[in-house]
């Protein structure tokens, strides 16, 4: 009987997450999860992660490493996507963390990130053999077009829920003009990638933005908890519900996911824009994430 613990640390632009999985009898079970909101994208100066941001990153990784020490996690994998990929001092930071903490950070390129997100759900959670998968993160957004459960086109938009908030929003929620600017930016980035022209019925959402969108819709009684798909028209309805920057609207998100009060609405705008661009009818919320995709790749490399 093979039993092992795998610790996966996902260094995102907004949050840093640790998930520990148990692999036993050819089955995977999540046994521990912890996250810290870091907002690394807010600690950039002239395209570099500044010293304050580096210290925050270092402190969180050190804490997560000590947790894995206590739980006797022998197999550990630390990775970053747009959070460290889209800065100019990436390798300086990698070297610093390696020297200070003995931790090796793997930087995933955008194509690998997209593929791992897809791998996390391709064997479970897809109600259709064709569609579009998206993973809206804090600093980037992956899009994968697939048919017969095989990607036929994929790319990464260099924007996310947190970067859109930083770049376009003046208060807490984007006003009408700011929302339009986010939509225009998303469309421009999609068109720049020159995706294959296609219409799909389903958009499969991976990651916290789409999961919290569903939680918000349930909280506002737009859908019930048991529904596993979201009609696209509801995104316009929920954005209309949150169009005013006032305490009443702030509380609607605070009751669902307080740390996403400033990023959830920009994230919803990104999802809505992608859905409408590809003429999507329904959005499916996937339970897995890129972290499971990373785990599957580690198990495959070990022949498990």
Structure notes:
- This protein has 304 residues and is of the alpha/beta class.
- Helix content is 43%, strand content 25%.
- It has helices at 51-70, 82-85, 90-101, 110-119, 161-168, 176-193, 208-219, 233-241, 247-257, 264-277, 290-301, and strands at residues 3-11, 15-24, 27-37, 44-45, 48-49, 75-80, 105-107, 131-136, 141-147, 150-157, 202-206, 229-231, 282-285.
- The strands form three sheets. Strands 10-9-8-11-13-12 form a six-stranded mixed β-sheet, with helices on both faces. A five-stranded mixed β-sheet has the order 3-2-1-6-7, sandwiched between helices.
Descriptors:
11 helices; alpha/beta; five-stranded mixed sheet; 304 residues
Which H/E pattern describes the elements?
A: EEEEEHEHHEHEEEHHEHEHHHEH
Shape: globular
The side-by-side strand order for the widest beta sheet comes to 10-9-8-11-13-12
Describe the main β-sheet briefly.
Answer: 6 strands, mixed
Number of helices: 11
Which radius of gyration do the C-alpha atoms yield? Answer: 19 Å
Average per-residue pLDDT, rounded, comes to: 94
Kindly estimate the percentage of residues that lie in beta strands according to DSSP.
Answer: 25-35%
Tell me the helix content.
40-55%
Any low-confidence stretches, pLDDT <50, length ≥5? none
- Number of strand elements: 13
State the end-to-end CA separation: 12 Å
Provide the structure class.
alpha/beta
